[in-house]
Design goal:
9-stranded mixed β-sheet, 18 helices, 17% strand, 805 residues, rod-shaped, alpha+beta, 5-stranded antiparallel β-sheet
């Protein structure tokens, strides 16, 4: 506690010493103000190279022989041609202007002296020797207050000084200076330059430090005489140092400050007493806190267990919602597929119902109608089959052979008759020629006559075709009757089935429009042979003696007998009969009878099939009640209607399950957030639980500490009262410290700089900098001093800002 009190009092004393530094001593009724700034160019070691002083006079009423004091030489007006009347150090200014700026050379010693020393790697070097070197640099700046004066204070001699608040700054290029350190200073930097800044009050420590209580030794850091800078340098350049100094305490009212400080000390004493009482109350409160912490720790343990239980439940819930989300998403997917399947089923059943209603139902109606017609036709065909008689093919062939023989015999008789008639005719001619040889020759000629052969051929053709046509017509009538039965539409035989049945029947040959050449040649050959034989048998004498009619009567029977009894003619007849029989195909009537039996069976089965068709038709469609669900068509229509409802319901179900899945997703996100929050809560609860344990331990320690604090405050109360008694030297206006401060205040108020006339309010400041290689040896130009005068306040502001951080 004494440490904090010491700092508080030290800050108060610092305020007493520093607040006056920045306030000018202007009189309330002054008509002329004077601000003086002296600019000093220093060598690298701190010695003065040149000093120029600039003054600014201001009067709201202008200057009418206004007196000013100055010990400057070579005075110049910086703003106009007006010059003063000068008599020694007295100047009289007359001008209507309200401001006068002038400067002159100042040979007086500056109130603050500067000494600069350098060491590089521990070895002392000069500024010139430092240039271009590298190593560890230590720069030491010593400030000297040149205004010291010995005075007697409360019967003792002491050295007092005019106080000067001094700001120092070192400008250091960043590329050459690294790792800069300062004691009691600040370092500011930009990209190219670093500035080390200090606050100093040269010789103030000597003037007052032995008058302050030991507890205020920290004030030594604010009353510096020596400044130190260290840095690592490369290709070193000589640092440029800047200094600004001004007297202070010009506006300090010590009596008022002492009264305020005394009041503060009284308040501090009361506060200490209250603190003593409060420490006792704190000790009691901490005891209650420790007991409450135990109760709270017990209750919080239950809460922490509940948090763990809730965390486990939340984890279970999170797992459940995650599983629910997966199944909800699966359900949404499957219901979507179900919806698509239902739509497809709806379309398919609608299409099926449409096909049945538009195609099957009309077909069933038509089939029912055709079934009735087919039954009638089958009945009719069955009746006709009952009347069909299958002929005996052996008897038929025999009958046809006998007919062929009769035909052939008739043909032979006709041929014989034609031959006899021809022979008789020829014989009659021969008789009339009166010579037997001619007759015989004529008969022989008749054997090869075209008339005979053509007549035989014509008659043979007539007879052959008449017999063949009768056999063909008999067999073809049978085949046509079978084909008529097969072509009946009611039996619904396919083309392939008809062809297979007809293939089993022998096909009758078509009746020929020409007689076979072998038959014609055979007959004409027999006729020719017989005529030739007759010619050879003619008795020329008999012929010669007979008359024409007699010849004819004789020749005709002979020719006829020869033709009809000829063996060749018999063989030809037999050949003709065989060819006629061969022209009639061998028809297997047993297969036909079997086929007719099968047809009768088919007719019976067709009747049963028609009954099955009725049953099938009834199962497919109920014409009287199309919506009958016991039929295929009715069921298909019902299924189509149900599929439509299923599609609508499945679509609604898909929409609902999708919304459900979305909701479950939201629930899952919320559950995960809840789980995360519960995990954070559980972790925080453990932290709080641990903290409660620490609070319990700390509470016990705090209880011990507050007990010690209560005991210590009792002891401290006595100690601090002793310390506060020592402050009487500061607050007492008759103390040595108070007297020394009064003297320094008076010296600051009366500091004249280069000169001050009576009644003039004046502030004085000094600005110094070391010369650089690029600096001119003389800097006393009007432009430079004017610029520095006009920017003086901004410089001081920058310095103040640096040290306010």
């Amino acid at each position: 506690m004494s440490k904090y009190l010491t700092k508080s009092v030290a800050a108060t004393i610092s305020a007493l010493l520093l607040l006056g530094c920045a306030a000018p001593a202007f009189a309330a009724d002054a008509t002329v103000e004077k601000k003086e700034t002296s600019y000093l160019i220093l060598n690298a070691d701190g010695s003065v190279q040149e000093q120029i002083t600039s003054d600014w006079l201001h009067s709201d009423d202008g200057f009418d022989a206004v007196t000013d004091e100055s010990d400057l030489s070579d005075i110049q007006n910086l703003k106009s041609d007006v010059m003063p009347e000068q008599s020694g150090n007295t100047l009289k200014w007359t001008t209507d202007e309200t401001d006068i700026y002038y400067q002159g050379k100042n040979s007086a010693q500056a109130p603050v002296g500067v000494s600069i020393e350098y060491t590089l790697d521990g070895k002392a070097v000069t500024a010139d020797e430092l240039k271009g070197q590298s190593g560890h640099l230590v720069a030491t700046v010593k400030l000297t207050n040149n205004t010291g004066e010995e005075v007697t204070v409360n019967g003792k001699k002491r050295t007092v000084y005019t106080p000067f608040f001094t700001v120092a700054a070192a400008v250091l290029p960043s590329e050459n200076f690294k790792n800069i350190t300062t004691e009691h200073g600040l370092v500011e930097s930009d990209s190219k330059t670093q500035v080390a800044c200090y606050l100093a009050m040269p010789s103030m420590k000597e003037a007052v430090s032995d008058l302050l209580p030991d507890s205020f030794d920290k004030l030594d850091d604010l009353m510096l005489d020596t400044l130190t800078l260290e840095a690592d340098v490369t290709d070193c350049t000589v640092p440029m140092f800047l200094f600004a100094a001004a007297p202070n305490l010009s506006d300090l009212d010590l009596d008022e400050v002492s009264d305020e400080l005394g009041d503060t000390m009284d308040e501090l004493t009361d506060a200490i007493d209250q603190l003593k009482d409060g420490s006792g109350a704190l000790d009691d409160a901490v005891g209650t806190l420790v007991e409450s912490l135990d109760t709270f720790a017990s209750s919080y343990s239950q809460f922490d267990a509940g948090v763990d239980s809730a965390l486990n439940g939340t984890q279970t819930l999170a797992n459940g919602t995650e599983n629910l989300l997966e199944n909800a998403q699966l359900l949404a997917t499957k219901t979507g597929e179900l919806s698509l399947g239902a739509i497809q089923l709806q379309n398919s059943t609608a299409q099926l119902a449409g096909v049945m209603n538009q195609q099957l139902v009309p077909g069933l109606v038509e089939a029912s109608e055709k079934k009735t017609a087919l039954e009638d036709k089958m009945t009719e065909l069955s009746g006709k089959l009952e009347t069909v008689e299958i002929p005996d093919m052996t008897a038929l062939k025999a009958q046809l052979g006998a007919g062929a023989e009769q035909v052939f015999d008739g043909a032979a008789s006709g041929a014989a008759k034609a031959a006899s008639e021809a022979a008789a005719s020829n014989a009659a001619k021969a008789a009339s020629q009166k010579t037997a040889e001619e007759i015989k020759s004529n008969v022989q000629a008749a054997s090869s006559s075209k008339d005979v052969t053509n007549a035989a051929a014509a008659l043979t053709t007539q007879l052959y075709q008449s017999g063949y046509s009768a056999g063909y017509q008999t067999s073809q009538a049978y085949v046509d009757e079978v084909k008529a039965v097969l072509d009946n539409g009611g039996l619904r035989f396919t083309k392939e089935q008809k062809e297979a049945i007809l293939a089993t029947l022998p096909q009758a040959e078509q009746p020929s429009t020409s007689t076979p050449g072998a038959v014609i040649d055979n007959v004409t050959e027999q006729v020719s042979d017989m005529v030739e034989k007759i010619a050879s048998d003619i008795d020329p004498d008999a012929i010669a003696s007979a008359v024409g009619p007699k010849v004819a009567e004789q020749v005709a029977p002979i020719v006829t007998e020869e033709v009809t009894t000829s063996e060749k003619l018999a063989a030809a007849k037999q050949s003709a009969v065989q060819q006629v029989a061969a022209a009639i195909p061998d028809i297997n009537t047993d297969e036909l009878k079997s086929l007719m039996g099968e047809f009768k069976d088919l007719s019976s089965q067709a009747g049963e099939m028609m009954g099955s068709v009725d049953t099938l038709t009834g199962a497919l469609y109920n014409a009287e009640n199309p919506a009958d669900t016991n039929t295929v068509v009715g069921a298909a229509n019902a299924i189509s209607d149900g599929a439509a409802k299923l599609g609508s319901g499945a679509s609604q179900l898909a929409t609902g399950t999708s919304a459900f899945a979305t909701g479950v997703g939201t629930l899952d996100v919320g559950t995960n957030q809840l789980l995360s929050g519960m995990e954070t809560l559980s972790s925080s609860s453990k932290t709080v639980s641990n903290a409660i344990g620490q609070f319990q331990s700390g509470g016990a320690e705090l209880k011990d500490g507050t007990s010690e604090l209560s005991d210590g405050m009792t002891e401290f109360s006595g100690t601090i009262n002793d310390k506060l008694d020592g402050l009487s030297e500061i607050t007492d206006p008759d103390s040595t410290l108070a007297r020394v401060i009064d003297i320094m205040k008076d010296r600051a108020d009366s500091f004249k700089g280069s000169g001050r006339a009576d009644g003039t309010d004046m502030t004085v400041s000094y600005v110094m900098r070391t010369a650089t290689d690029s600096s001119s040896n003389s800097t006393s130009t009007t432009e430079e001093t004017t610029t520095e005068t006009e920017t003086k306040d901004s410089f001081w502001n920058r310095v103040a800002n640096l040290f306010s951080k």
